Amino acid sequence: MKLVKAEIIAIGDELLYGQIVDTNSHWISQELDLIGVKVVRKTTIGDNRTDILAAFAEAEKRADVILITGGLGPTQDDLTKPLMAEYFGCGIIEFPRAVEAVTAFFKQRGREITPLNILQGHLPSCCTYVPNEVGTAPGMWFEKNNRYWMSMPGVPHEMKKLMKDFVLPKLPTVFSLPVIYHKVIKTVGIGESWLADLIRDWENALPEHIRLAYLPSLGQVKLRLTAFGTVRKKLEQEVAAQIALVLPQITSYVYGYDEETLESAIGKLLKNSGKTLALAESCTGGYISHLVTSIPGSSAYFNGSVVPYHNQFKENLVGVKSETLSAQGAVSEETVLEMAQGVKKLFGADFGLSSSGIAGPDGGTEEKPVGTVWIACAGEGFVEAKKLQLSQDRLLNIQITGVAVLNLLRICLIQNNK
Amino acid sequence: MKLVKAEIIAIGDELLYGQIVDTNSHWISQELDLIGVKVVRKTTIGDNRTDILAAFAEAEKRADVILITGGLGPTQDDLTKPLMAEYFGCGIIEFPRAVEAVTAFFKQRGREITPLNILQGHLPSCCTYVPNEVGTAPGMWFEKNNRYWMSMPGVPHEMKKLMKDFVLPKLPTVFSLPVIYHKVIKTVGIGESWLADLIRDWENALPEHIRLAYLPSLGQVKLRLTAFGTVRKKLEQEVAAQIALVLPQITSYVYGYDEETLESAIGKLLKNSGKTLALAESCTGGYISHLVTSIPGSSAYFNGSVVPYHNQFKENLVGVKSETLSAQGAVSEETVLEMAQGVKKLFGADFGLSSSGIAGPDGGTEEKPVGTVWIACAGEGFVEAKKLQLSQDRLLNIQITGVAVLNLLRICLIQNNK
Question: How is domain A262-417 classified at the architecture level of CATH?
C-alpha cells in the first residue's frame, strides 16, 4: 500500500508576523494522522502572489493531498482564490448554488448582502464547490495529475466543519488508506510521569503494532492507543484487550474514552442518577458553569449558579456566616464548605460545588500566596473540601481549578452511587 | 534599504503528526517582526534526511536569515547537526568549550554525564559555537554566501534564551534593518465586508508603504496597519494620521487598539467611571462572567452574577415576574429586561446585563428557533434590549452572545458617560 502524503499550506501575513497563532495546521495534522495520511510538510506563507504560486508548485511535487487554509475573505488582500484559478489555468465564474448559499447565509441573519459578498459565490471554473454552512467563503476542491487540493477559510470553526463534512470522508474514497484504529483513554487527577510509572510494565509489553502516546493537557492526561493493521475489527478487539489489562491499575483516574470530556462525563453521571447540581464560584468567576452548560441538554441536571465576587454576596446570597468570613477569610476551607452547602440549598440541588481562591496576579499574602485555592463539594449528608496550590498565572489557575472542581464532583458522584 | 527576509524551519516528526504544538515559530515571528526582519515563510518538516536537506536548499534561495529549531537532542532520530555539517561541507569535531559546558551542566545538577551527552559538545567545524546556558544542546551559527543560519534546540525556553542572548542582538550588526511599525484597530459589532465597504475609499488612498489587513474573529474584526520605513517616530505619526482620517467613519465600532480585548476595554470604562456590573446569564451559562473575571483586577467593578437556568430561579432569585414568564416565555424581550433590572438590584450594581436564548441544538420551536437570543442592559434610568438570530451551534451561539452582550454594555457605558 502506497503511503499517502499531505502538505498543509497556511496563507496569511498575520501568521508570518506572529499576530495570530496558526492552530489550524496542528488540528489538521492530528485529523490526518487518525486516518493514516502522513503529513510531510507544513508551510506558512504571506499574502503574496509569488510566494503562494511557488508554494503550490513545490507542494505538488511532494504531496498527494494539499490542504490550504486562509486568504479567502471578501477583501482585496485575500489572494487564494484568484491564484488557484491562475495555477490551475481556469477562469473565475459564477457558481449559482454558491451565490445562493452566501445570499441565504446573510438573509438568515437578517442582514443585507453586499456586492463583495456576492463575489464569494464566484469560483474557479475547474473546482468542485464545497458548501460552507457556517461562513461565507466556500470550500474549493481540485483534482489534477493525481493530486487532490482543498482550499478552506482560515477561520478555525469553518475550516473544521469543511474538514469533517467533506475532506476527511472524501480522502478514503480517493486513496487506499491503511487501517489505523485509535482509542483514547481519558484520565484526570494524575500527572503524566506518575501515570507513566504506574503503567510502565504494561506499556513495555505492548505488541509492536500498538503504539501508546501520552497527551497531557491542563490537569488531564489522555492515553492514546494506535493500532496498525488491515482488519479494523481485529484491531478493535486487540486494543480492547489491552485496555482491559491496564484498567485495574488506573481505574480511579479514568473518566471516559475518545470524545468524552470531563463535563460530558459528569453530565452523564448526573443524568443517570437523576441528580441535580448548583455552583457557587468565586475565583473561577463563572468558568465552571460555562463548562457544565456547554454540554447540550445540561438543563436536565444543572439548576444554576452564583458568582458572589465580594464577601457581602457570599454572605447574603449563599449564606456563608459573617463570623466565618471574618475569622477564616474568603479563601478558606470553612468558607468553601459553607458556600457549597449554601448554594445547594439556594437552588434546591442534590450537589453544591464551590471555589474560592487568589487567582492573581495580585491579592496574594505571605500566608495565602497567589495560586492558593479552596474547592468543595456538598451532597446529601456529606461535604468535602480540598486545597490547591497553583501558579502565578490567572487564567491557568481558573482553568486548573475548573478541572479540579469537576473531578471532585466526579469522585463524590461515584462514591454516592456505590 | 534591502528587505531582510527570514525563514523559520521547525524540525520534528511530533510537529507533523500533531502531537505537540509548535509555539516556537510563532514566538520567533513576533520577535523578528519587532526588529524589522520579514519572515517570508515558515516550514515544518519531519526527522527525515531528504526533507531536511531539501528544506535547507530551498530556504537558502528565499531568505537571508534561516532559523532552525529542533532535531538537536542526543538520540539517533535527531538529524539537524550531522545534516548541517553535510550541507555546509565540513566535518564534526570536538569543541572543547562546548564539551566543558555540557559537562558542567550535568555536574551542576548532580548527575553523571553520559557518552551520548558528551557528543553534544562535538559540532560542525564550520559553525560558530553559541553556548546554551539552560540546556545541553548548543546553538550553532553559520555564515555562508551572505546567508546567516542559526540552529537551536526545540525546547521553547532554550530557544528563547538563545534568540534573546545571541540572534536578536546579532542580526542588526550583520544587516541594515528597516523599521516596521504595526498598529491594530479593534472593532466589534460590524462584519468584515460592511467594514470594508465603509472604509474602501480610505483604504484605496493609503500610501504605498502602509498596508491594511482585515483579521476577523467571532463578532469582531481587527484592522492591522503595517508601515514600512526608516524612522519609527515618523511611521508612528503617519499611521496615527491615517487612523485619525478613518476613525470618524468607524468610531462607534472601535473599542481599542493592539493588545486590548473587549473585556479589558470594558473593564477600563467601568473602572474610569467608578461603575459596577452584575450579570444574569441564562443561555450563556456563566461564559460572560468568565470573560469579565479573566481580567486582573476585575473585582474592582464586577459585583457578581447569577445563572438562573430554570424559570423558578429567574423568578425567585432575579425577580422576573411570574406573569412575564408565563405570557412571554423565558426567551423574550420582557424577560431579559426584567432580568437585567433584577440582577442590577440584587448585586447593588450600576449596570445589569442579561441573556436568555435557545443555544441549541435542541429546544427550538417554530416561533423561536435554535439560535434565538435576547440580551439586555439596564443602567440608571434606562434599559435596552436586543434580539440576536444566531446559528445551530451551541458553543458558537454562547460565544457570539457573549461578544454581543459586552458590546451592548460598551455602548451603554459610552452613552452614559456623555
Answer: Alpha-Beta Complex (3.90)
